[in-house]
């Protein structure tokens, strides 16, 4: 059964216990639906563990328009997991990693001109939707399903996006598919639910 955590301190202790004694960085993947709290959890973990955080949204490759593929195909198209592999492999080997992030401000399909750089740290956090996808499983030491009450998640989404339109909904359908058929809740090492940070 997947251990569930609703408070931050025991969660951190469980993480540090699992990471203890490794001779390479310990990689954590907080995954979950949009606005579930993945980014907040990663930031809080980084603050208390001095972890290196990799934002999954940097690797977005889904384009800026509506797509016609079914949800299963959108799961594969949303995030460049191959580039994430390169980054994780470098950090796990003790090397610096760098990449050009998707430019969310311009939102024109282009990448930022400036490189994002991360140095290896004892704990590396790859946060974001699809961070615990099977294609990265051999590089992930701890997969964490981050969940929030649907009303809380909905409020966060509206506050962040302003309006939920067709572009957003296509990715919501892909998330639903992913968590039902590819990474169901019981397949995660841990779950973190509405954790006060």
Descriptive overview:
The chain is an alpha/beta fold. The chain is 37% helix and 21% strand. It contains six helices and eight strands; from the N terminus they run E-H-E-H-E-H-H-E-E-E-E-H-H-E. Strands 1-8-7-2-6-3 form a six-stranded parallel beta sheet, sandwiched between helices. A two-stranded antiparallel sheet has the order 4-5. The longest helix has 17 residues. It is globular, with a radius of gyration of 16 Å. The chain starts with a strand and ends with a strand. The model has no long low-confidence stretch (mean pLDDT 94).
Our estimate of the beta-strand percent is 15-25%
Order of helices and strands, N to C? Answer: EHEHEHHEEEEHHE
Largest sheet: 6 strands, parallel
Strand order of the largest sheet: 1-8-7-2-6-3
Structural class by helix and strand composition: alpha/beta
Per DSSP E runs of 2 or more residues, the count of β-strands stands at 8
Mean pLDDT: 94
Count of discrete alpha- or pi-helical segments spanning 4 or more residues: 6
Radius of gyration: 16 Å
Distance between the termini: 24 Å
Low-confidence stretches: none
Describe the global form: globular
Helix content: 25-40%
């Amino acid at each position: 059964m997947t251990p569930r955590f609703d408070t931050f301190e025991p969660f951190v202790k469980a993480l540090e216990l699992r990471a203890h004694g490794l001779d390479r960085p310990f990689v954590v993947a907080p995954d979950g639906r949009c606005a579930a709290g993945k980014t907040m959890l990663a930031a809080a973990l980084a603050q208390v563990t001095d972890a290196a955080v990799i934002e999954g949204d940097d690797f977005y490759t889904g384009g800026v328009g509506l797509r016609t593929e079914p949800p299963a195909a959108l799961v594969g198209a949303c995030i460049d997991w191959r580039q994430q592999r390169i980054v994780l492999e470098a950090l796990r080997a003790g090397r610096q990693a760098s990449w050009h992030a998707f430019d969310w401000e311009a939102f024109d399909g282009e990448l930022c001109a400036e490189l994002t750089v991360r140095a290896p740290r004892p704990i590396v956090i790859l946060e974001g939707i699809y961070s615990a996808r099977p294609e990265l499983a051999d590089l992930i030491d701890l997969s964490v399903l981050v969940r929030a009450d649907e009303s809380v998640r909905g409020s966060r989404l509206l506050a962040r996006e302003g309006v939920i339109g067709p572009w957003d909904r296509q990715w919501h359908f892909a998330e639903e598919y992913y968590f039902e058929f590819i990474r169901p809740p019981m397949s995660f090492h841990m779950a973190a639910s509405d954790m006060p940070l």
